[in-house]
Amino acid sequence: MQKLRQHIEQIVALTxxxxxFILSHFTIKKLKKHQYLVQEGEYVHSDFWVIKGLLKAYQxxxxxxQHIMQFASEDWWITDYQAYFRKTKATLNVDCLEDTEVLxxxxxxxxxxxxxxxxxxxxxxKKSNAGYIAxxxxxxxxxxxxxxxxxxxxxxxxxxLLQRIPKTLIASYLGVSRExxxxxxxxxx
Length: 189
Fold this sequence. Notes:
This protein is an alpha+beta fold. The protein is built from 8 helices and 8 strands; from the N terminus they run ααββββββαββααααα. The strands form 2 sheets. It has a 4-stranded antiparallel sheet with strand order 1-8-3-6. Strands 2-7-4-5 form a 4-stranded antiparallel sheet. The mean pLDDT is about 95.
């Protein structure tokens, strides 16, 4: 679990004892491609840190159109945060685009770790703040940028994901049709 320690230590330094304490509150879960990690209508018991694999968080509208909120690959966190923090049923689905391995942290364990270790609370606050900023930037991009600009920003922010994510899912994330994506990206399948 050296990767998790490195991830946390980008924000706070930990002793071996502190890291072991944090790690003891996680469980590990392995999933296959296309398996749900979170399913709409079910209770969400954990926040998930991706050890390996690739996931997407999305919602289907009443017409069956998929709206992708987030992708998550190695070293990223993902869950339905509304359901996780409010202890309600999920309004999002999170499923695996590849075979995936995640560390799971229940809200109770997160609260316990944060209450007993100020460094953990600081880490999660910093991660939450970064998430709020990223969400605000994503919303503003959807409101103020055209499809080509959103695609170029996606390429700039996530160059390694382009080869791992089907173009139809990238189009959904950007809020455009696959045909529109093909026109300005020059991508061919």
